Amino acid sequence: MTAIDKIRLAKQASASIARANTLQKNAALRSIADHLVAHSKEIIEANELDLAKGSSEGLSAGLIDRLRLDKARIESLSEAVLQVASLADPIGDVKRGMTLPNGLRLNQVAVPFGVVGAIYEARPNVTIDIAALALKSGNAVVLRGGSASENTNLLLVSILQKAIASAGLPSDAIQTVDDFGRQGAVEMMQARGLIDVLVPRGSAGLIKAVVEESKVPVLETGDGVVHIFVDESAREDWAVEIVHNSKVQRPSVCNALETLLVHQNAATKLLPSILGRLSESGVTIHGDDFTQSLFDGAVAATEEDWKAEYYSLDLAVKVVSGLDEALQHIAKYSTHHTESIITEDVSNAERFLQEVDSAVVMVNAATRFTDGGEFGFGAEVGISTQKLHARGPMGLAELTSTKWLVRGEGQTRV
Amino acid sequence: MTAIDKIRLAKQASASIARANTLQKNAALRSIADHLVAHSKEIIEANELDLAKGSSEGLSAGLIDRLRLDKARIESLSEAVLQVASLADPIGDVKRGMTLPNGLRLNQVAVPFGVVGAIYEARPNVTIDIAALALKSGNAVVLRGGSASENTNLLLVSILQKAIASAGLPSDAIQTVDDFGRQGAVEMMQARGLIDVLVPRGSAGLIKAVVEESKVPVLETGDGVVHIFVDESAREDWAVEIVHNSKVQRPSVCNALETLLVHQNAATKLLPSILGRLSESGVTIHGDDFTQSLFDGAVAATEEDWKAEYYSLDLAVKVVSGLDEALQHIAKYSTHHTESIITEDVSNAERFLQEVDSAVVMVNAATRFTDGGEFGFGAEVGISTQKLHARGPMGLAELTSTKWLVRGEGQTRV
User: Fold this and answer.
1) How do residues B79-130 score in pLDDT, each as one tens digit?
2) Chain B, window 279-338: residues with a beta carbon less than 8 angstroms from a chain A beta carbon
3) How many domains does chain B have?
4) Is B351 a domain residue?
5) Is the ipTM beyond the 0.90 threshold?
6) Cβ–Cβ pairs < 8 A, chains A and B
7) Does A219 touch chain B (CB under 8 A)?
8) pLDDT (tens digit per residue) in A146-165
9) Does A48 map to a domain?
10) Which residue, A254, A251, A133, A255, is CA-closest to A199?
11) Partners of A31 in the beta sheet?
12) In chain B, which end has fewer C-beta atoms inside a 10 angstrom radius, N or C?
């Protein structure tokens, strides 16, 4: 069986997944949760093969940790699937409805895409998250999870297939092309008419390659050069804690803070305490001249720092003349993921919310909240930084399309 | 000034169009409506240059007619712009909202895309329709209208620019690259980061070229191999009139009927009157064996007829064993635009609505109703046959993206 054969099987199974009602889909999700726990031992054995391969190939300790599945992590994966089961079914949701002057009744309702494709890297939990979200939203799914976790993913998909079959849904609705290497991803990107939407999730290089090569429409997940602007009126305690939390709580993810902008009238008062708190947590400050003059430990920032998504305990810091300069800096360097303003000034807050052109724009909150789990979506497919179809954290609703249902009594057009 | 310079101007102007409130945008639309009527004479003169060029190049009478603008058509264009002004502003519409357990308040609101691009052919009314819809939805727009209407389009865009400038909005927000020929379209398709979404509208060849070449996300408008299924229980009067209206009222458009499927138990009773009525209007019937045996004038249908979007007074007709075969035929040959069932059987109606995977699915109504104007959208950008972002007729709502606004009081992530 080739990769394209597997994609065709998913397409064939998609019609019956699309018709499954909520009770059937939730039963299948509960079955998945049960099967994962029941097969923990085999999953850990398969995962150990990937870990051994990763070690011998010199994967970093961080990547090895992301790759690892142990009993606790499998249980938490199982819990996440149960949480998806507990969410409202997005299918059938009536988005708009009206009666036309001629009596035709229109309903725009949410429907499944059909077949969702995902190309991702390393973390095997993505296999379970995306399969669970696809199933709950009535979609078949084709997965391509990267060679580093090949053994784990192949076993996980076979468990997913058994689990949904035992709940009466077609096992073909969940497919992996991990056994076809790079060619599997290529076939997915060419599968126009078979795969309805493709989600790349992983490094900037992976996403760029999929966006450029895919003939299938792509839901782009993107980098986060994330900014916080500390306004003149910012409360010191909020500024210190929000900046610290946004940078330090988990620096390796896309919603972590990368550049701090501070109003010049607040810099002398607030920067020493903000940067002092960061410094205690080991953050390296890349500052402009003003910042360096205020804070001894700062190294000089260059143009590259304003563009950097560090993914590390580094932070670019710039003192700006006010909200206008902050908005200009953000417009120039932001990747349109998440930005936050710390302010007590309601006009500045509203202007920031309106004028910053990003997926998520915040007032007096940590940027780390841009997350499907935090938003209440259960698992997440990824965070979209494009404007078409979905923007921000993508959950069940973002895996649906719509169709118009029109009911009449013989109406014809004049 | 090059094509890319003009695209950059649109991008620069997009921020101020996005911030314009409804009163300002409506004033600009009324100004456009006034300016069109006031400049009728010059528009007709420019249009005559295109008509003369079209005649000398041997354009068909049908295309010449689509190209023509006279006083009445300019007045109707002006009316259409006023209708767009009268529609509700889609910007700021709150799509979802919730308060998280930690007190963060989230609102997902509709925002403009930024810059909308349109690549289209022949009919100069599209220039006005798309510019008006883009303006009302807070977007800047870059237009590329095809060489056949170049003189008309260049003048129309200069009138649009003057009209919005006189209402206090930046004239740069409406751009044409018609003066750069094919290169203008190429620059648009490459303008990732400047143009946010590209709408191709015209022939299948044009759409395919844009979908395949564009680096900018595309809203695909598509062909319509449109089906009607006449069920066993169909009312004869509805079947006759709905089929006739769907085929004959305007055969050259994408929502016109192309293939009629008839339940075998209804064929003997209904087909003679359905086909007789069509025949009186000059429709050529391409029928299967059963159809030919029932109706003398039918020619033999081949495999090509089931795939045909005739755009003419031709109709493919097939007798099927029942709803199952009708659904299978539609799944195989439909372009997922519009399908309708004529039935008195509520179970069959609901099954058809659920299982047909098309942008618009109808019961007892003519397929010609798949239209932005009929749906109450004012003008239309086109009819989307893709599943991402927009499906079916695209009006103001389809020219918007969303962003998440998050308001807090110092929340940080645990």
Assistant:
1) 999 999 999 999 999 999 999 999 999 999 999 999 999 999 868 999 999 9
2) 331
3) 2
4) yes
5) yes
6) 191
7) yes
8) 889 999 999 999 999 999 99
9) yes
10) A133
11) none
12) C
